[in-house]
Amino acid sequence: MNNKKEQTPATKAIAEIKERVQLDRWKKDIENRQAAGLSIAAYCEQQGISKTTYYYRLRKVREHLCRSAGLLPELPSGSSSKQQVVPIRMGAEIVSESRVEIVSGDLRISFVGETFPSALRAVIEALRSC
User: 13 and 64: one domain?
Assistant: First the structure.
């Protein structure tokens, strides 16, 4: 027998707001660490958190930003946000002949016209190193 109670619309809304507030806080923490020029190890020691916790938060913030930008599908309500493998074909073909946009906070990167996987890959790798 399933003991989980079905969430009411109000309970779901509250949970979504709590998650958004938490993600916003984590995003600000990550931005503050970067602005202060602290290494991840030094930041984690200063904050009393493990590096695993830091990277978990970073991953969650990145997933949220990618979903907000339409780069990842929205998760169905009530599902967990465990990592999923999504195959992406990365040949020499053109990915888009219109517009590809990557948004992270105040940063907005747009590719207009022919967009090649190598260009997208280079931008994504650069963002990961931040």
Answer: yes
